Amino acid sequence: MKCFKSMSFLAFMSIFLLQTEVLLCLVQGHVHYHEFILKDTNFTKLCSTKSALTVNESFPGPIIQAQKGDTVNVNVYNEGRYGVTLHWHGIKQPRNPWFDGPEYVTQCPVQPGTNFTYQILLSSEEGTLFWHAHSDWSRATVHGAFVILPANGTSYPFPKPDGEQVILFASWYKEDVMTLLDETLKSGGLTTSSDSYTINGEPGDFYLCSNETTYRMLVDYGKTYLLRIVNSVQNVDMFFAIADHNLTVVGADGAYVKPIVTSYIMITPGQTMDVLVTAKQSLGHYYMLASPYYDGEADDFDKSMASAIFQYNGNYTPPSSPIYPTYIPGYYDIDSARKFVTQFRSLASAEHPVDVPLNVTTRMFITISIGMLHCPNNSCAGPEGNRIASGLNNISFANPAVDVLQAYYRNISGYYNASFPDEPPNLFNFTSEDLTADNYTITSRATRVKMLDYNATVEITFQGTNIMDSGENHPVHLHGFRFYVIGSGLGNFDNVTDPLTYNLVDPPEVNTFPVPKDGWATIRFIANNPGVWFMHCHFDRHMSWGMDTVFIVKNGGTDETSIRPPPDYLPACSKNSLFGADQSMLQIEE
């Protein structure tokens, strides 16, 4: 069994380490090494040039490929202008939170001029996931696909495709993203929308100065292709369709699902999907479109559409223009989004079984809301001179000066409070159209976490709210786990009748899921991964405003059920993530 090795980092490995690597390969699967260099790179898009932070000078960043059960080591050198962390989205990292990545939760940023090696432990994940920066808004240009192939001796639960292609959606801003974030956080107002969306780094034909670089996927007639679709857009869900071609969804978030045949998909930021498409139309060019979906009232989003071309090989006269889809849902098509989302079911086969927890020991009810924080003299740019904030159970999460994991592991007091509540402070009509009084809108800032016993069976119902007429779909992501989405619905959750609708047979097992606008969703998981794990909305602006919390899963009774020891080196904690020597508004004073 030969381990894959990559890049110059291996030149520094000793003979002893190489021999150790071979032993690890034989016992634990392949061990991979990658070198990521963070640095500013110039790009010209939308008729203008700017410098953006990238990995290895590419946008999107490099694809990591491994097999189920492998270990991946990524040495990150920061040659950029500010501190950055990286997160391996959807990878559970069993007992290994030290390398999960969210800043001030499991580590402090890797500062300019330093490096840090991440150890990524693959376990049950199989399919398409991705990696991205998890500090400030640097995810905008620091991200890439993470492809996990079946282990040796196993195969896909569908006929092996003839080819495959990563399709990655992202946001593009003409201005520097960190400058925009700085201005937004200082003013307390709304965030700036992107100037375009991109497919594999290119905006496409419907933007100025872009049609010469539109991404083209070349295909052969009669062949079937696996599209590994990643949504890394900052703040909006996306519809996707290919003109005149049906799509078959076979996987989501690194797990397989019962096939869904559809003419479009809806995918939230943080979600990944494996989709089959067969090239069986007349030879020609067909548009692939990525179009935003938004169901909020503020209407503050980028109303544009990215395009790529599904282009057949062969001897034919190229058309003057690609064929446009006969149907792709509109920006505000709630019914089409909901119809797609509710179709997901786990494969639940002998090879890919489900194990839905039945005996709940910890039950939580968490409200999701946009609110406000008071500003002195009404000096902020939000409603009534207040600062826009967001929260879970009316708590807006604040990043501490020392990351939660170090504070917990080393028993350092003063950086977090283990008092995140199991329910909101008040119960009311969460979806009412008249929720503007201060007792609804004003949130509190704190670093409050939820403690979980090892092996606790956890059920969480998330309730969307319409406070300040701000109800919208929220993609919630939980680090360290895959969980079952056993139910969802519209309106206020009814704890008597709604549990009767739960799917306990084949619910989807995911890491990111949409809580519908003015609706609810219920998840279950077993807290069998000791460590410190972040949970947040995957709209970056909501995360920046505080729609986050942290779960601390206690150790079990043995070494094998306890957090692994920390690495010899961790990035030092300081107060200069983004704003020099000053603290971010997302941090609290020591």
UniProtKB/TrEMBL annotation:
Entry-linked CDD domains: CuRO_1_LCC_plant, CuRO_2_LCC_plant, CuRO_3_LCC_plant
GO biological process, one term: lignin catabolic process
UniProt GO molecular function: copper ion binding; hydroquinone:oxygen oxidoreductase activity
Pfam families reported in the protein's UniProt record: Cu-oxidase, Cu-oxidase_2, Cu-oxidase_3
A GO CC annotation given for this chain: apoplast
Note on cofactor: Binds 4 Cu cations per monomer.
Cofactor: Cu cation
Location of the protein in the cell: Secreted, Extracellular space, Apoplast
Classification via InterPro entries: Cu-oxidase-like_N, Cu-oxidase_2nd, Cu-oxidase_C, Cu-oxidase_fam, Cu_oxidase_CS, Cu_oxidase_Cu_BS, Cupredoxin, CuRO_1_LCC
Catalytic activity as recorded in UniProt: 4 hydroquinone + O2 = 4 benzosemiquinone + 2 H2O
Keyword Cell division: no
EC number(s) reported in the record: 1.10.3.2
Primary role: Lignin degradation and detoxification of lignin-derived products.
Family: Belongs to the multicopper oxidase family.
Protein name: Laccase
